[in-house]
Amino acid sequence: MSISDRLLLLAELPSETVDMGAFTAMLEKAGPWFLNLCWKLLIALAVFLIGKKAIGFIRRFAGRSFERAGVEAGASKFLKSLIEVCLYGILVFMIAGQLGLNTASLVTILGTASLALSLSLQGTLQNFAGGVLLLLVKPFKVGEYIICPEGEGTVSMIGLVYTTLLTADNKRITIPNGSLANSTVTDVTAMEKRRLDLLVGIGYQADIKAAKEILERSFREHPLICKEEDITVFVDSLGDSAVTLGVRGWTAPGDYWKAKWDLLETIKLSFDEAGIEIPFSQVDVHIVK
Known about the structure:
There is one protein chain. By secondary structure, this protein is an alpha+beta fold. The protein has three domains: about 25-120, Helix Hairpins (Orthogonal Bundle); about 140-185, SH3 type barrels, CATH 2.30.30.60; about 195-275, Alpha-Beta Plaits. It has eight helices and eight strands. The strands form two sheets. Strands 4-3-2-1-5 form a five-stranded antiparallel sheet. Strands 6-8-7 form a three-stranded antiparallel sheet, covered by helices on one side. Strand 7 (about 230-240) and strand 8 (about 245-250) form a beta hairpin. Helix 1 crosses helix 2 (about 20-70) and helix 2 packs antiparallel against helix 3 (about 75-100). It starts with a helix and ends in a 15-residue tail after the last helix. The mean pLDDT is about 80.
């Protein structure tokens, strides 16, 4: 029988049946146990205070390290919180061991609860892991224009679970990070310059040299085409009804579509002035009487 059980049994007995000598002996035996408990609580409190200070220092040190490494603010905040939670978990186990608790049972309970939670939130955890991966690897940034299987648009937000795109016609696309992290993503605006390729067909009877001069002049005179980069004009293919000419130049990613639309219109008007025909599909009907 333990000391506490004996004390309870003595408390339930009538006062006249209690042996004061035995009661004094029980108190003398309980004294060391009580002092030992107080000592353990004092040590546990000291471990908690020291551990709390150490965790704060490690969190600040990790934050400065992430800042120097150029980690995104969202990823940095998440990683600091994750480090803090893990360190506090270790601290709890240290305090539990100091108090004499069975840490093996506590680990089993936490492991079972974590397994059940992970199975119930499997899809969400996959998206969460994808969000952390996107924030750490940084295949694209907020404000850049990307193309992926789920759609294309300007990145407006990279969250821990979802990424939001704004399309050119001002629609919002919300994509789970799990699928986005496992997809092929084309970052259109990542580089400073983007090549603009145009293919134009002319008739076989047209003057190829004159058409090539028009294409080169149209690109060279356009204000949105980079003048320091070479402009290439070439014969791309000989089709059934047209000679396909190609022309290549460079422009800023944000000017790509405006430059393309302007050049197509300029080339068409210039071809009309020079009498160069752009072939189109047509059907000739011959009536034999």
